[in-house]
Write a structure and sequence with these properties.
By secondary structure, the chain is α/β, with parallel strands linked by helices. It contains 9 helices and 8 strands. The chain has an 8-stranded mixed β-sheet, sandwiched between helices. Helix 1 crosses helix 8, helix 3 runs parallel beside helix 4 and helix 4 runs parallel beside helix 6. The longest helix has 25 residues. The N and C termini lie far apart (40 Å). Bound molecules: NADP nicotinamide-adenine-dinucleotide phosphate. The site of NADP nicotinamide-adenine-dinucleotide phosphate has 28 residues, from helix 1.
């Protein structure tokens, strides 16, 4: 990477943890591509951030696999190496929703989008890597992954028995399984010059849960009692993207800035493989429809 300016792509950059991670990276001298679904929110955020010359924006609703794929293609066409991809956008859906592509929304946004975007932009990540300085992928998971029960592989999208918290927990478990499996695959195929890790940002005082009726209000009220600020919550993401001490760490789970053992289910390599394959198949089904 030498002394050249580093480039990060941050999803969910219009508010909360993603916005603060973007701000911190800009303060460190990075160039940041902010990804959001709402053009006017992106405009507002750009006006608020310092260093406008180092910001660009991309619009994509990441609950749509086609839009996520378009985003990846736009980034590939642009050709700018990506030193850090921060998959942060996420939400909680109560009641169950399906996207226009027929995918359960939590699974689409929280898991399939980071899964597909990361895989698609691999050439740009590799282009940013240099010996001892891997490009980094960060997947924002949650401690809630530990609440997930063994997922039935034939019903990953809860056609049966949807519960918003279980769907959220399952998507966040899938994030941790994904980084383990992707790290293993990249090592195996000689692309170990990219690192990928999952992070629980902490319990953070953002708008998360707010627009989800009574249950959202309940969770938000409970969490706000112990929440840290979005800037504090962003620290774990930023450390994983930038800290030279973590250059060789891959396939791991962090709670805020500290590496932690994830829940037992998240260490199940066979499950990681099965969920990875099911996710690749789901992507293919949607893109070919
Ligand atoms: N807050 C916590 O306590 C906590 C704890 C553990 C993990 N997390 C995780 O941290 C991440 C960030 O959450 P947050 O607390 O910062 O929440 P937030 O304030 O609600 O921000 C979520 C971000 O994701 C974006 N987003 C939502 N749906 C999207 C879509 N369909 N397409 C593209 N972007 C979309 C939002 O865009 P808009 O501005 O357009 O809505 C926003 O920028 C999530 O993955 C969440 O699961 C949060």
């Amino acid at each position: 990477m030498g002394n050249s300016i580093r480039h990060a792509v941050v999803t969910g950059a219009t508010q909360g943890i993603g916005l603060e991670a973007s701000r911190a990276l800009l303060d460190l001298g990075w160039r940041v591509t902010l990804v959001g679904r709402n053009p006017s929110a992106l405009e507002r955020v750009c006006a608020d951030l310092a260093n406008p010359t180092r910001i660009s924006t991309r619009v994509a609703d990441l609950s749509s696999l086609c839009q996520t794929n378009d985003l990846a293609n736009q980034l590939l066409d642009q050709g700018e190496p990506i030193h850090a991809l921060i998959n942060n956008a996420g939400a909680y859906f109560h009641p169950r929703q399906t996207t226009s592509e027929g995918v359960e929304a939590t699974w689409a946004l929280n898991h399939l989008a980071p899964f597909g975007l990361t895989r698609a932009v691999k050439p740009l990540l590799r282009a940013a890597s240099s010996p001892g300085e891997p490009a980094r992928v960060v997947v924002v998971s949650s401690n809630a992954h530990s609440m997930a029960k063994i997922p039935p592989l034939e019903d990953l999208e809860f056609a049966q028995g949807y519960g918003a918290m279980q769907a959220y927990a399952r998507s966040k478990l899938a994030n941790v399984l994904f980084v383990r499996e992707q790290a293993r695959r990249w090592e195996q195929e000689g692309a170990g010059d990219i690192s990928i890790n999952a992070v629980h940002p902490g319990v953070v005082g953002t708008r998360f849960f707010r627009d989800n009726g009574f249950f959202g209000w309940f969770w938000r009220t409970l969490l706000d009692r112990v929440a840290i600020t979005p800037a504090e919550g962003a620290k774990g993401l930023v450390r994983l993207a930038t800290d030279p001490a973590l250059a060789s760490v891959t396939g791991k789970y962090f709670s805020r800035e500290t590496e932690k053992q994830p829940a037992k289910l998240a260490l199940d390599d066979a499950l990681a493989r099965q969920v990875y394959e099911a996710s690749a198949k789901r992507w293919q089904e949607v893109l070919e429809a």
